[in-house]
Design a protein that fits this description.
alpha/beta, Alpha-Beta Plaits, Rossmann fold, 2 domains, 8-stranded mixed β-sheet, EC 2.1.1.-, SAM-dependent_MTases_sf
């Protein structure tokens, strides 16, 4: 089936209203894309997190007359009268196959591979985590996740416990278990993340060693040898008392989801309790690691 796509430049404040209006006009799907290519992270429950400069992209049946659509948008009050837009025909593709073809096995460090289930494992003797893209953030493709995976690959996790704070897909906890950790605990605010982590753990044969908690339900005395938190700089600083308290005496901490420009302020916060190592940087994103003082 052929499609027509309209792309509108908007703002984060207006994007959802425009999306609702386009669906009323007959759009079969609406997506948001950052005009400045800024990554988006897993939203809070019930939240749709948008960018400061957002493109709204709507898909219509190819037979749709787009002129009435444009006129309706002009009179909606949601856009300026001379709003920027682009209309283009989209070739008919097997979109599921197109999506699947974009994901390949990825290597992190010396031993660890993250592999989609439909791909052949490159090295049967490596540590292979089978993980498909899904609802929760974390497939290894983003620099923040890659930095954490490489750090875990370099540790001796045998007999250790790990907490994945903001576990998303469970990728870090599952990788730690397959790298030799005795037990892992995943914590997240989003029930979808808990479900995704459980399903991924079952697919990798480690569900019996992974405990999962919503944030408000985690045990008060919870501690681990290694704590990883791949979220965002703001929450990392705000949750310093919580995250810091999860690390055992002489335990290790790994923080990511931090822009290079934000690293100094996060380091300043955590240096109160941790001996921090040099910041690792990749594509403007950072990883901060350290040990309890």
């Amino acid at each position: 089936m052929a499609w027509i796509q309209i792309r509108l430049n908007s703002t984060s404040e207006k994007a959802e209203s425009i999306s609702d209006f386009l669906e009323e006009l007959g759009s079969v799907s609406v997506t948001f894309m950052d005009s400045q290519d800024t990554p988006i992270f897993e939203p809070l429950p019930g939240e749709t997190r948008l960018w400061g400069n957002t493109d709204v992209i709507a898909l219509f049946d190819a037979e749709t007359d787009m002129q009435p659509i444009l006129q309706a948008l002009q009179h909606s009050g949601l856009l300026a009268q001379d709003f920027a837009y682009k209309i283009e025909q989209i070739e008919d593709k097997d979109w599921e196959r197109e999506w699947m073809d974009n994901f390949h096995p990825m290597r992190f460090g010396r031993r660890l591979w993250i592999c989609p289930s439909w791909r052949e494992v490159p090295d049967q003797n490596a540590v292979n985590v089978m993980l498909d893209p899904g609802l929760a953030f974390g497939t290894g493709t983003h620099p923040t996740t890659a930095l954490c995976l490489e750090w875990l690959d370099g540790l001796d996790l045998k007999g250790k416990t790990l907490i994945d704070f903001g576990c998303g897909s469970g990728i870090l906890a599952i990788a730690a278990l397959k790298l030799g950790a005795k037990q892992a605990i995943g914590i997240d605010i989003d029930p979808q993340a808990i479900l995704a982590s459980r399903n991924n753990a079952e697919a990798n044969g480690v569900a019996d060693r992974l405990q999962l908690f919503l944030s408000e339900a985690k045990p008060a005395d919870l501690k681990a040898d290694v704590v990883v938190a791949n979220i965002l700089a703001g929450p990392l600083k705000e949750l310093y008392p919580v995250i810091g308290s999860l690390v055992k005496s002489e335990g290790l901490l790994c923080l990511s989801g931090i822009l290079e420009t934000q690293a100094a302020s996060v380091c300043e916060t955590y240096a109160q309790s941790f001996r921090l190592e040099p910041v690792a940087v990749r594509e403007e994103w950072c990883r901060i690691t350290g040990k309890v003082k």
